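In the laboratory, one determines a bound structure by crystallizing the protein with its ligand and collecting diffraction data. In a computational setting the workflow is compressed into a single prediction: the sequence and the ligand go in, and a structural description comes out. We illustrate the idea with 2-phosphoglycolic acid.
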Amino acid sequence: MKKKIILGNWKMHKTIKEAADFIGKLLPYLPKSSNQIGLAVPFTAIWESSRLATGTSLKIGAQNMSDATEGAFTGEIAASMLKDAGAQFVLLGHSERRRIFHETDAFIQAKVTRALQEGLEIVLCIGETQEERRRDFRAVLQKQLQTALQGISAFQTKSIMIAYEPVWAIGTGKVATPAEVQEVHSWIRECFQKRWPQETARLIPLLYGGSVQPDNISSFWKQPDIQGVLVGGASLHIKTFIEMVQS
Ligand code: PGA
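The predicted complex, in structure-token form:
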């Protein structure tokens, strides 16, 4: 059986107490297998969440960070601070960051480099809009991948996961079909194989995100190139999240 990865992305939801309640309820349901469960929580909840997750297989991560090490960047947060608070991974390039906060591929690349330097695992999010899907969506994804992963060595890929999240499927209830995702993932894999040694490329986890729910999650596990899912809305409710963990 392949190892599966389920990451929740809480976005701007949950206070420290709400995070702690959720994690307390989740811990007894964590898989004993090598399957991996993680939560990208708000900055304010990282410390308490990672304290509660210590000694368990639950990974706690952040949803964004600065590309700078430190300095006069009011309101920003550094990778070293995330590490210090207990984060193990960080989401980078989420479509909401790209769209609402105008993050460019080059900016995301700077963050990728910084996160890896600081020893954080990264989940690089890529995805096309509905309009781009009609045109040449592979070109869009290729540019996002190529720019963000510029200069990444084969060794560094051990700390990288890719989350393919078509923008049209995020928070819309319009889920991509497992076959559609498989097609994109196998193409991403081929791109990686042209760049890094086959074995290295084969091991980079490819996740799907966009309206994943308890009733559709299992359909993704059947596809050979889908190693995991990144779940937004459905990760906020303990009952639905446990259902997904048990899938
Ligand atoms: P969704 O969000 O599951 O609510 O569609 C996914 C995401 O934004 O990562």
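The two ends are 13 Å apart (CA to CA). Keep in mind that any predicted model is a hypothesis to be tested, not a measurement.
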